[in-house]
Structures are given as C-alpha cells and as structure tokens.
Specification:
Oligomer: homodimer
Strand order of the largest sheet of chain A: 3-4-9-8-5-6-7
Largest interface: A-B, 36 and 36 residues
Structural class of chain A: alpha/beta
Shape of chain A: globular
Order of helices and strands of chain A: EEHEHHEHEHEHHEHHHHEHEHHHHHH
Number of helices of chain A: 18
Chain lengths: ~375, ~375
Amino acid sequence: MSNSSKENYSDDFEVTPWNVEGPVDYARLIKKFGTQEITNEILKKIESFTGELHPLLANKFFFSHRDLDWILNKYESNEKFYLYTGRGPSGMVHLGHLMPWFLTKHLQDKFDSNLLFQITDDEKFLYGNSTMDEIKKNVNENILDIIAIGFKKSRTKIIVNSRHIKHLYSNSLEIAKRITFSTAKSIFGFTNSTNIGMIGFPPLQGVPCFLPSIIEGKPTPVLIPAAIDQDPYWRLTRDIAEKMGFYKPAQIHSKFLPSLQTIGKMSSSKPETALFTTDTPKLIEEKISNAFTGGQPTISLQKKLGANPAICSVFSYLKYLFDTPVESNERELKCRSGNLLCGECKHDLSNHSTTFISMFQERREKAKDLVSDFMYSEDS
Amino acid sequence: MSNSSKENYSDDFEVTPWNVEGPVDYARLIKKFGTQEITNEILKKIESFTGELHPLLANKFFFSHRDLDWILNKYESNEKFYLYTGRGPSGMVHLGHLMPWFLTKHLQDKFDSNLLFQITDDEKFLYGNSTMDEIKKNVNENILDIIAIGFKKSRTKIIVNSRHIKHLYSNSLEIAKRITFSTAKSIFGFTNSTNIGMIGFPPLQGVPCFLPSIIEGKPTPVLIPAAIDQDPYWRLTRDIAEKMGFYKPAQIHSKFLPSLQTIGKMSSSKPETALFTTDTPKLIEEKISNAFTGGQPTISLQKKLGANPAICSVFSYLKYLFDTPVESNERELKCRSGNLLCGECKHDLSNHSTTFISMFQERREKAKDLVSDFMYSEDS
C-alpha cells in the first residue's frame, strides 16, 4: 500500500498514514498535501488567547494547518471548539507520540476545550501483523500514557474503536456512503492487494470530526492536533462535512520526531530508534549513546570543522523537547563552530530524558486508577 | 455496481446480491456460481432424517447447494449444525422473502437446530437511497415477519447489524483482513464508483458463518438456506474458513418467486409486483387480478390452443406456495390443453393468498410481544 502512493511524492521521502520514510521535506509536503503554513500572524493570534506561545508552536514543530485561522475566529466570536486527536496502538508509546498530545493538553487548558481521543485498534489490526490480543494489550498500555499527559478528566473522553463501535457505527455508515472507492484510492493509494477492511476503515477515523456536533446538537468546530501523516483521513471528511451539515474539521499538523538511529521518524516497530515511556534509565542512556549525530569521525576533526546539527537526532530531541529556543540557538552555534562535542549533547539529552521519563512513569502508575473515568462510555 | 459484473453472466439475466433481472436460467447459474445441483440422492438422505420431504425441496424450489451432503454426513455422525439465514431490510416483506424462511423453520424443527437470523440494515443503507431512520422502521416490521414464521424461541436469535455491531466487529475484522480488494472485486463487481462502505461490508455478512463455532467453542457446521443471489457473500467466507480454523459454511439455495407483473423476481421497491404480508385482502385480489399469466389474448383462443404455465406468474405462485405436486401437475396439464382459464387460477391464488396472509397477520400481531425474546442480546 505504501508504495502505491509513492508517485504522489518525491523519490526520497514518503508520508502516508501507515508509513513515513526518508528525509521529509516539510515545505514540499505542505504543497503536496495542500495544507497551509502556520504564519507568524496566526501564532500572534494564538498568543493573544493563550498569553504565551507553546514551545512546540514557537519552535515550529507544529508547522502546517487547515482552517486554524477560521477556528480562532470562531473562538473569538464565542463558538468554542472540541479537540480531537488519536493513537494507533501498534506498540508502546514513545516520545514522538507524546508531542502532539503535549500541544493538545496545552490547547485544552488554554481554550477550555472538550477532547475526544480515538484509539484505532481496528486499523492497527487490519494493517500489520499483530493479533487482536496483542493490540488489546497495547491499547491498555497506551491509555495510561494518554492519561499521564494530564488531560482534564471532566473534559476528555477516550474512544477505543472496537469497544465503542456501536456509538460510532451509524455515523461511520453516513460517511462511508458518501465516499467512492475512486476518491479513497486517490487519497490513500489503495491497490488490488489492499484488504477490504483497510478500504472500509477510513470513515471510522472520520466520525470524531462530527461527533461533537452530534453531542452538542449543533454544528460545532473541531480542531485536530496530529502528526501530518494522518491528514489524509481528515481530508476525506472535509470533502463531505458541509453536505452532511457539519463544519469541516480544522487541523494543526506536527513534524515527526526523528529516529535516534538514522534519518526517518521514530518507530514502535524498531525499539532502538525511539525512547519509550516505559524504558529504563539504563536503556535510555544506551540508546542515546548509540544515537546518530551530525558529528565528525574524530574529536580533533570536530573541533576543527564543527558538526552538523541539521542532521543530528540528538540536537532535534533537545531542540523540540528540552531546550528553550535561546538554548537551542546557542547549542547550534557552538556545534557548528566546533565548540561542542557530541558526547556533551548526548549527556544533556540523557539527563533530560531520564528525568522526564521517570516523572512520566510515576504519572503512568497513578493513571491506572483513572482509566474508567476517561473512557467514552461504560460499555467497555 | 450491478452492471459491472454483468460480463460474468449471460446477456439476458443478471443475479447479484443487490439485483436480479431477466429470466433466470437456474441450470446455467449453477455453473456460473460453481454450486452443485440438489440430486435425488441428497433428497432421499434428507427424507431419511425428516420423515417427509418439505414441498420446497420436493418441487425443486430449492435447487442448488454447497456441501449439503457433507453437513448431512456430519449430522449422521452426531455433529449438529446451526442454521443461518437473513434479511436485507429494504422494505416490507413479501411472499418471496418468506420461502427460504419456511424451509429454515422446517429444518430447525426436524434437525433441532439453533438459528442465527441476521438483518443487514447497514448494507441496505449503504446500497440504496433510504435513510437510516426509514431502514430502522423496516427492521422493526421485518422482525415481526420473522417471528411470525414460528421459529423456536429458545433456539433462534435475531442479529441486527447496527444494534449488535459490537458482538460482530472483531470477527468481522478477522475476515476483512484476509480478503483483498482484488478478490472482493471479482466476486461482487465493485467499481471505482462503489462507496467504500459497500466494499467494507461483506465481512459482516460472513460473521454468522463462524459465530456458532465461537459460541460452541469448537468448529461447528453451519447450513445457510437462502435465495441463490446471496451466495457470493458466503463464497467469500468459504475461501478463508479453514485458514481461520472453521468449517466452510454449507448452503442450500432457492430460486426466486417471480414477479406478478413481468419476468423477474418480486421486488419490495415495486409493490405491484409482489404480495406483501401486510397487504389487505382487497389489494391482494387486485394485484392477482392484474397478474401476468401465460394465457392467450381471448378465451376462445385459450380453449383452442391452451396456455403456457412455464411463463405464468400465477402458476408459479400456486406451484411453489399452495398446490401439492400432484395438484400442480394436474393444473399444468389442464392449462396446456386449454381446459383451464386464467381466471380460475387467479381465483385459486386469491383464495389461498388471502387466507394465508390473514392467518400470517394474526401471528404478526402476536409477534409484537415476543420481540425481545428473539433478539441476539440485550444491548439493543
């Protein structure tokens, strides 16, 4: 499936909801997907509501959107929006997964939004080699991560597709009836060898775009913070939203946190490429010590020529997760000029990561008592 | 969709799960679908269990099968089978719909079988122009017809897809994952303009083939009595059954009760072509009086040349629903020889139909108190 849509992109990277490969050119992706860049004007508008700009907005980790300006105008005229994000439970959660959730929590706090959090266990079963039992275990683990983010209990509902299918099904049918195979094929690159479950699935990921309007009994704006690879799912619902009497869902898209090992995004299926929320401090240190950097082969060469932070996974982790913009700029200058060795950056990242993950693990433990409070309904 | 698969059949008739058109050549259909003719040997074997041969078997209204011999052998060696049949709630129920249910009830009585009765409200929404609300009304009406057939309460469970989707969904995913678009396309004739709900739907109609094995905790034979147009759905599950650790579902296929108006099967969407279980006696008489027969333009011509029962809807109704085989043979001879006028046959059919439907309507009324007893589970 992933290969089939390759022709839509360049030869050196690929972004689909199921596969991200190669060095992603985000500016080109905006053009390919037909989304908008997040301008400084929009950032200023957000800041006018939130009082401060979230680091993931300030450092442009969130870089693209659809109708973000529109939804801010709606908010300004007293139409509150729902947030909607999700998780495909293909394995344990790593830091890359958390990043859109950090922004989602920030937006929930600042805009006092209700949040629907969809877990697409069905999709992950249909795409991939895991059994439903394996995926169910992932779901239960992933729910702890979601709760550990700190979303407001009273304003957050987690939907697990296979558990809550009865609540989703009728709306899913309404969406499915309006989408031809031709449209779905052109968006997702389905081929003859795609299983029919995958072809039938996209409407289910569309349902939470419209569920807020159904819950509220009136058209209700929805903002989806997510990594940009998931955009095709909601592009599909945008095309039919107005015909169904709903608003088009607005979106705010993040980049991918790179792999620790090579170029590309982190991956649950390759554990050495990512820092998981359940990793031990020792494992975190090991992974970071083996991480791919932009450094020179020897210390003396690095001191002489400087290194390349643009391709360095350690630099990216520090920039997007732990450094302030000022700290990150300073780190970049020192790195390029040969005044910073990779070992120091790895040391910084290890310290930050072990501290963060150990704190997160405590919250994950506490989350175990809160699961039922966060579930969409009681029929799980 | 219906046109797309036309190339698989001859030019003068078409049989798909959603459309039956033209004069069906059943012998050719057996070859096209790759099913088996029900031989006299099989009929004798059935008779050895049931003591008498059901009229719909004796008169070859049920004419085709898959693995019927196998399931009888299983029964002989003490492996009991489940029955599974269904209803697509596109409208009210007519006599043509009842006929597979009559045989199903007979088999339930004689073989003491459990029965799963699936109502595919989702399919009828995805294919066609009805709203979900209209279809829900049909579902409630159709359930009364099903119960009025007289199935055993303790051995019968009605499944309504949208109500019971949570019980069906995981198994549906297991089926869906094993079927490529290529396979589904070749069986159902899906095209670029097919909506993705229709493409994703077939696994749901497959679930009750395997549900008995899941309920019983061991591979359990299933026999599906149904009109032959539904065969493609189960052909699909037969291909993957053994890989999933189940038996292939066996089937016994009926012909279609013809339209009262022209050649072709009765249709819920053309009320004048069918006798509905909710029709008044007056309406039944009207429809029959306008029915298409094999008669001559004038009485004198008919007395001279005789008529043609082979193309006569009234003759078919009498043969398959009300005449004994002996009566039907006699009627045929008299008709061909000019000793029977169409008015007499219409009179006979009116009498039989109004009597039957009035009795059925009484049972339909009583069924209203039994609905919850027949539902698959309480979460409706």
